[in-house]
Amino acid sequence: MAAHEGWGKHLNGQTHRAPSIGAYCFKGFILGSTIAEKILARASGQTRVNAGDNIKAKPDFVVAYDFPGYTDVIFKQMKDEFGLTGVKDPSRYALFIDHMVPAVTPQEEELHQNTRDWGAQAQVPVYERKGIGHQVASELGYATPGAFVVHFDGHISQLGTFGTLAMGVRRHLIESFVNEKIRMAVPATTRVDLVGQLQRGVMARDVFHHVVRVLGPASCRFQVLEFGGEAISEMSIDARQTLTCLAMFTGAVTAIINPDQVTLPYAKERARLSIEPLYSDHDATYAARHTIDISQLEPVVVIPPSPANTRNLMDHLGLSVQVGYLGSCASGRLEDLRAAAEVLRGRSVKPGFQLHVVPTSQEIMRQAAQEGLLTDLIAAGAFVSSPSCDYCFGRLGVMSAGQRAVSTGTLNVRGRMGSTDSEIFIVNAAAVAAAAIEGQIADPRPYLR
Amino acid sequence: MSLPVIHGRVAFVFEEIDFDVDQIIGVKNIKLRDPAELASVAMQSYDPAFASQVRKGDVLVGAMNFGYGHPHYPPMIGMRHLGITAVFAESFSPGYWRGEVAMGFPQIACPGILKFVNRWDDIEVDWTAQQIINHTSGGRLDIEVWSESDRLMIEAGGVLGYLKHIQQEEST
Predict the structure, then answer these.
(1) Which end of chain B is more exposed for a tag (fewer CB within 10 A), N or C?
(2) Does B30 fall in a domain?
(3) Is ipTM strictly over 0.90?
(4) Do B163 and A178 make contact, defined as CB atoms within 8 angstroms?
(5) Is pTM beyond 0.90 here?
(6) A255 forms bridges with which residues in the sheet?
């Protein structure tokens, strides 16, 4: 059988193929597997799975943040429809309170209290005021290399930094609360190798949006985006978390990076499970492979109203902005704070400009304080807040009609940070700081020492 | 369980690639929850007469990567209230897709759909042949096959029915 004969119809961008040996054989040799396939094989109790296979996989961890319409509905439907007030193995579950923190209405606090109460009676840990859950999950060891994790929110993909396969499944998440296993089709994988050395003032945020620009916003639909290459090896954990966090904007269902000497010490020290890390085989089957040279990349800006709109920052210099947001689950880590502090140290935020700095977690905020970064930012005029998701989705620091922001938040769609007639320009952390000095979109590189 | 009958008119064709479904009701209305209220604001930017023209069984058609961005549920709650029974598109964005399939709302990918239909054409899904029939033009077009779990979710009318079906299946 020829290598292609086992391949079936394309389904929503997944390359589907029959689970026959012909699907992964070429001239009699059995081809290798991707890290995602290996993780899902382990999670489904099989020796091997291939893209397109229908499987029943047991997530190692099921995580969620409390949010109206999600966790409250899951708890209610579990009880009303299935008579369940808890889960079989509470240690597999984790709940985070990171949106609507602190509460500003009695209804918000009621939601949080219901989450605390449900967690207490179900013996499921509830983490609150520790930071944005997607980041805190890694700090607390849920990003175990080789593990399979589900959440309703797609930005959980950032656990892929550590070789964890973490997928956002929206309302399908309830299956993981009611049953031990979740039914799914194994996604195909697109491999993107990044090569070349980043120039000064160019950050992971620029790299991700450049990938969207090069490959397109539908390039990885329904697939796993696997990052690799020499440039990845040189990147910090912070930078990798930025890349993997935003996978959904390529259409991917998640992103993953094979563990290495950068990520393993961090992840293994905190890991909640004792499982062996998994790695893609050199002859794994990919839906597509791309190599992107980032050595000539310059800072980018993603113009409203879509995360698909990557442009060169230099073509948008001088546009007046009134608000800056440095934070979110995508950015707001030490690397981002260091870059912003370097730009702002000894300088001042332009009078009238609102610069909101929100470290992604308490652990990051504590380290930033120890390094003196917060002192530098505050001295320059930044408004520094405790970790919360609320600046990113327009609950705090909202804009009025006609205002513009530079932001490291996840999105730039209309109304995301306030009025539907305000605008969001996504840039890297250093560029947020540079804009805060000038009150307009600015090149951060001249400010870097 | 069986797949739903989908037979109706193409009530609207969204030709924009990477279409953000929140635009159907406008982001300013994204926090509305009442289906009737959502239906009343739907499509105002595209065709103010839409609500008066659409009828039960009609369908929507979209372009490539339909649902891209940060999709919310209210736009399609409004559309279902108006009688829309399915969305066809050249392809879908996964986040939107997963959300609507979990609601039991058929999302059917069929490359070539934009050239295959015009607004108000009468179309029907032939589940046996995995094709769309265009009764207005007389043509047929292949649709993409759902995964097992997606098909079950649609047959069961959403994630709750799907879970009950699984429990029943596993208990027997």
Answers:
(1) C
(2) yes
(3) yes
(4) yes
(5) yes
(6) A225
